[in-house]
Amino acid sequence: MKRIIYPFAALLLIIASAFTFIQSQDWKIADTYSVKFSGGDPSGEFKGLKGAINFDPNHLATSKFNVIIDVASINTGNGMKNTHAKSAMWFDAEKYPVISFTSSSITKTAGGYEAKGTLSMHGVSKEIVLPFTFDNNVFTGSFEVNRLDYNVNAAEPNHGGAKFKVDITVPVTK
């Protein structure tokens, strides 16, 4: 009887371990990405997006985003506004050089997907839900951020509006 149990147990371990090695696809961020923000003054975009994107629509449990944006890469289209946005009054790029997002889970929705995770900016971390789609190797998402939730220019709460819409388009390659 023991002779039958050991091979059977070994076979079960091999089959079970095959399922634990399922990993999501690693993607490289293409240079043609865009991270734009609008809804107040200033509006513009960030460059300097880097990070790890592991995503497979068939294996969402192992999918994960861990990305950062270089705050000093902000471009409002106006040199004076860029300098002001990088200053201690706004984003304080010297003290807080990156904005980061790390997902904790990714789920399928009727319109695409949702990445739940932590958005960290200006020394404050908050849980957010980032809705997105993934078509033809391009991630596209849009969400709102209230700058006051992250103490960005909290000294002037009514300056230029508190909420910003963030539109992200990230083409990826394998």
Our measurement of the CA-to-CA distance between the termini, rounded to an integer number of angstroms, reads 49 Å
Number of strands: 10
Average pLDDT over all residues: 87
Total domain units: 1
Main beta-sheet strand count, sense and barrel state = 8 strands, antiparallel, barrel
CATH architecture: Beta Barrel
Q: Which fold name fills CATH's third level, the topology?
A: Lipocalin
Low-confidence region ranges:
6-22
- What fraction of the residues are assigned to beta strands by DSSP? 35-45%
Order of helices and strands: HEEEEEHEEEEE
Report Rg.
21 Å
Supply the number of helical segments.
2
Spatial strand sequence of the major β-sheet: 1-4-5-6-7-8-9-10
Q: Which structural class do you get from the secondary structure elements?
A: alpha+beta
The CATH class turns out to be Mainly Beta
The CATH superfamily is identified as Lipid/polyisoprenoid-binding, YceI-like
Tell me, what's the shape? globular
In short:
By secondary structure, this protein is α+β, with helices and mostly antiparallel strands. The protein is 16% helix and 44% strand.
How would you sum up this structure, described in words?
The protein has 174 residues and is an alpha+beta fold. It has a single domain, classed as Lipid/polyisoprenoid-binding, YceI-like (Lipocalin). It is built from two helices and ten strands. The protein has helices spanning 2-20, 79-86, and strands spanning 26-29, 34-38, 44-46, 49-54, 64-70, 98-108, 113-121, 124-135, 138-146, 163-173. It starts with a helix and ends with a strand.
